[in-house]
Specification:
Layout: H1 6-23, H2 29-45, H3 59-71, H4 76-83, H5 87-90, H6 95-102, H7 104-116, H8 125-138, H9 143-157, H10 164-184, H11 188-202, H12 204-238, E1 242-246, H13 252-262, H14 266-270, E2 273-280, H15 287-301, E3 310-311, E4 324-330, E5 334-342, H16 343-351, H17 353-358, H18 368-381, H19 387-399, E6 402-406, E7 412-416, H20 421-428, H21 430-434, E8 436-441, E9 444-446, E10 458-462, H22 479-510, H23 517-527, H24 532-542, H25 546-554, E11 585-587, E12 594-596, E13 608-614, E14 617-622, H26 626-634, E15 639-644, E16 652-661, H27 666-676, E17 681-690, E18 693-702, H28 705-715, E19 721-727
Parallel strand pairs: 2-5, 11-15, 12-14
Antiparallel strand pairs: 1-2, 3-4, 4-5, 6-7, 8-9, 8-10, 13-14, 13-15, 16-18, 16-19, 17-18
Helix pairs in contact: 1-3, 2-4, 3-4, 3-9, 4-7, 6-7, 7-8, 7-9, 8-18, 8-19, 9-10, 9-11, 10-11, 11-12, 12-13, 12-15, 19-22, 22-24
Bound molecules: manganese (II) ion.
């Protein structure tokens, strides 16, 4: 380890003094002494340690403390915890030592910070469990998350010195979990900077391009904003407001994101101007009244777009954001978004909850944050919820935006935007969710899967007889509803499983049979499963009676190939197939005695072989199928050549995969093509679209490869489709 030079020591001291100065306005001399003590401890602990860039390590905790206090607005405790945040993880100092020197509170913050690091990093069961534990401990004090965000922000700001593969990993992780977390906490400024930095490393060319474009268009933009703002400035001055108007450009990331998702050019995105009016409210009027007064001034000058008013003053967003947004027609026929905020609202928008604490006296609303923490806590405390599922659901919560709906009594509830009536029911109480039978939305009776719109008023109808159904999972969105349903199904499933197991034991005992592998194999075949728990469950569900059980056990054991639909297998046949190995066997509609192998799903027209599984059965495999290749080498005496005559009656299942650029009507165009093909029937269809890329699979019944190839050719002509191919269907898909 290279010792610090004199100049480096000077630099460290200078940086620390800058930090100390930043805290002066809110600390006592005593508190500053504590900060000095924490700095000394961290300095000693990280003595002569260096970051990847070569600079002294101690500069990192100092920078994190600066971000925490200066950019986010946290207090002394957070400064102490920030300075000490890496000592337990990276040096010999123990948590007990910190507790001894700085007390319980600081020790618990540092402990939370130590545990949280690495928790978000990789996904595995163990870490999901960790994640849960850490959230449990730290949701008691959100400062842990906020300081962690400050830590990550500084790491992102200094990411240049990391090797490229690390840069990508860290940036990806930041975009995936930290930026949404910052958003959820209302830390907009930090969220924006994190996203921009991520883009810089993940898509450097695009980042440079947008940055360059912003610079080139800056002059024109400022001229326009000034022209737009001047009349507003005059009127606000006349009314005696103290205010500031700024025309901040959108963040680089949000421009990029819009270009990507909407497939538009930089100019099209950037043509949308936004200005912000930040004012100091006059003492004798409410903030809300003054926001609307300024709105009225702006709309006297410019025509508003009425469906673009967003009032987060009357009802703040769940993360605390307050502002009045309007879109008006500016000079030259350009839409301009106007955001109206007081200084207090602006501070909350930039600094999030930290600012809430500062203005605690001013706000008489129950903190939305407390509700958020309460929700997380409820989920964490449910012992039955699976840790990994929780992690997914938690992310789900982070990524969805929100709608606000009302209870019958007019209470406001914030839900994820794709919520249904059932989500609402679970939000109110899990008992109401589990026994819901229907809902009244705006006094109209609707089903539980009814999608909610912002502003809906919902009443849930319940019945104690009602039990949750599996398909409910398909239409709930909120993490809470998902978790509650899953745990209720797990309970119910376990009960049925136990019943099934006991029932089977009883049947065996009654018939004086041993539970040996033959008994089980036949049961497995009957229920088409290989899983013991699933088997018990099915037996419990079926309430398997003795007659059926006996029948199952009497049945001759069949191969694992599932018989193909439409091809009747004679109950018993003595006429074994005669194989003449010199001639190919011709299979057509009249050949009843064959089965299609589900490992490769051949269809008429494919190159195939036949495998004589037993006296009465021929199994058809594709020649290229691995099982066929194995059979050909090990049991060639039972393998015959097969030729298929063209079928017109039977249908075979084929799967087609599609890829393309998401375009309006693309799904419709594909299904139209399919329905026009006379010899094709659709069985299942699945489409997905993300980041403008469209992907899908279609399962169709066809008669032969010609039909399938025709369909593929026609689908490839659909506008937007870039790739069409036949996919293998495997056993698991059934
Ligand atoms: Mn750190």
């Amino acid at each position: 380890m290279k010792k610090f030079t004199v100049n480096e020591k000077k630099l460290i001291l200078r940086k620390f003094n800058e930090l100390l100065q930043l805290t002066e306005s809110f600390t006592t001399a005593e508190q500053r002494e504590l900060i000095r003590k924490a700095f000394n401890m961290a300095y000693e602990a990280h003595a002569n340690m260096r970051r990847k860039s070569g600079e002294p390590y101690i500069l990192h905790p100092i920078a994190v403390a600066k971000i925490a206090t200066h950019e986010i607005g946290l207090g002394t405790k957070s400064v102490l915890a920030s300075l000490l945040h890496d000592v337990v993880e990276d040096t010999d100092i123990s948590i007990e030592e910190i507790q001894h020197q700085f007390g319980e509170k600081i020790a618990s913050l540092v402990d939370g910070l130590t545990k949280i690091s690495g928790v978000f990093a990789n996904r595995s069961d163990l870490q999901a469990e960790n994640f849960r534990k850490v959230l449990m401990t730290m949701t008691g004090d959100l400062r842990v998350i906020i300081i962690k965000l400050a830590d990550r922000l500084h790491n992102m700001r200094t990411l240049d010195s990391m090797p490229p593969n690390k840069q990508l990993k860290i940036a990806g992780e930041t975009l995936f979990i930290y930026a949404p977390l910052a958003h959820r906490m209302g830390l907009y400024a930090i969220k924006q900077e994190l996203e921009d930095l991520c883009l810089k490393y993940l898509h450097p060319a695009e980042y440079d391009y947008i940055l360059q474009q912003i610079k080139e268009t800056e002059k024109g933009r400022l001229t326009y904003i000034n022209r737009f703002s001047l009349p507003i400035t005059n009127r606000l001055n006349e009314e005696g407001y103290e205010f500031e108007i700024s025309g901040r450009p959108k963040s680089i990331y949000s421009i990029w994101n819009k270009m990507e998702t909407k497939k538009v050019s930089f100019e099209e995105v950037f043509d949308l101007f936004a200005i912000r009016i930040i004012f100091e409210p006059k003492p004798n009027l409410t903030e809300k009244a003054q926001c609307w007064n300024i709105y009225s001034i702006v709309t006297d000058l410019y025509v508003p777009k009425y469906d673009r008013i967003r009032d987060w003053v009357s009802q703040p967003k769940a993360n605390g954001y307050e502002a009045l947004h309007a879109t008006v027609m500016g000079p030259g026929g350009k839409w301009v978004e106007v955001q109206i905020r007081t200084n207090r609202m602006n501070e909350i928008a930039e600094r999030g909850y930290a600012a809430h604490w500062k203005y605690k006296g001013a706000s008489h609303q129950e903190s939305e944050l407390d509700r958020w923490i309460k929700q997380i806590r409820e989920m964490l405390e449910d012992p039955k919820s699976d840790a990994l599922e929780f992690l997914d659901d938690f992310k789900l919560n982070l990524f969805t935006s929100e709608i606000m709906v009302f209870t019958p009594k007019g209470e406001i509830i914030t839900l994820p935007s794709a919520s249904t009536a059932l989500d609402f029911a679970f939000y109110i109480h899990s008992e109401i969710g589990l026994h819901a039978i229907g809902a009244k939305v705006n006094h109209k009776l609707v089903g539980l899967n009814h999608p909610l719109q912002g502003g809906d008023q919902i009443e849930i109808l319940t019945s104690q007889k009602q039990m949750p159904e599996l398909h409910w999972l398909d239409f709930v969105t909120s993490a809470k509803a998902k978790a509650k349903l899953k745990s209720s199904f797990r309970d119910k499933r376990r009960m049925i499983m136990n019943e099934g197991k006991a029932h089977l034991e009883y049947l065996l005992m009654d018939l004086d049979m041993q539970p040996n592998s033959t008994v089980f194999r036949k049961l497995y075949n009957h229920y088409k499963t290989r899983n013991k728990e699933e088997l018990y469950f099915r037996i419990g569900e079926d309430k398997l009676d003795q007659e059926t059980f006996k029948k199952i056990q009497k049945k001759r054991s069949r191969s694992k190939y599932i018989k193909f639909w439409g091809i009747e297998h004679p109950e018993s046949t003595n006429a074994a197939l005669m194989f003449d190995k010199s001639k190919p066997l011709v299979v057509d509609d009249n050949s009843k005695n064959y089965t299609i192998a589900h490992c490769c799903n051949p269809i008429p027209g494919d190159d195939v072989i036949g495998y004589k599984a037993d006296e009465e059965e021929l199994i058809i495999h594709k020649t290229s199928c691995p099982t066929a290749i194995r059979l050909n080498s090990s049991e060639s005496q039972n393998v015959v050549k097969v030729e298929w005559t063209t079928h017109r009656i039977l249908a075979f299942l084929g799967r087609i995969s599609l890829k393309g650029i998401d375009d309006i009507g693309i799904v419709n165009n594909c299904t139209t093509v399919i329905s026009k093909e006379l010899n094709v029937n659709m069985r299942a269809i699945g489409f997905e679209s993300h980041d403008g890329i469209f992907e899908g699979t279609i399962d169709v019944y066809v008669h032969n490869t010609n039909d399938l190839n025709n369909l593929i050719m026609n689908l490839s002509k659909v506008k937007g489709i870039t790739q069409v191919s036949r996919m293998e269907i495997s056993d698991h898909d059934f």
